[in-house]
Specification:
Blueprint (H helix, E strand, L loop, with lengths): L1 E7 L5 H17 L3 E10 L4 E9 L3 E8 L2 H36 L2
Parallel strand pairs: 1-2
Antiparallel strand pairs: 2-3, 3-4
Helix pairs in contact: 1-2
Length: 107
């Protein structure tokens, strides 16, 4: 999986890069078909905003999060993306489970 970081008004330090890699790596545990991730960090006057787009095999996930601290914004973003990926995975697995039950019952 390729992770691309971009900073608008923010210098991407090695510590920030490692932190983003760690948090995005957590999402990969739930859904292994991730192809690439593009993370953009914005620094407004007092607001730190992070947005990310994840490209999976047949799906694209996007989320944004703002906080007063960049690390808190990254945490919130990771939580939102994790929830989206888990919800998508549940939909896909539930869909296939229903198809199997229909085949067994003959309807």
């Amino acid at each position: 999986m390729q992770i691309e970081l971009t900073g608008h008004g923010v210098d991407i330090t090695p510590a920030l890069r490692d932190y983003v890699n760690e948090k995005i790596g957590r999402i990969k545990r739930h859904f292994e078909q991730l192809i690439s991730v593009h993370v953009v960090m914005h620094l407004d006057k007092i607001d730190h905003r992070v947005e990310a787009t994840i490209n999976a095999s047949q799906k694209r996930f996007h989320a944004e999060f703002s906080a007063s601290d960049m690390y808190a914004a990254i945490d919130g973003l990771a939580d939102r993306l994790d929830a989206q990926v888990r919800k998508h995975k549940e939909k896909v697995s539930d869909h296939h489970r229903d198809e199997g039950n229909e085949l067994k019952t003959g309807t």
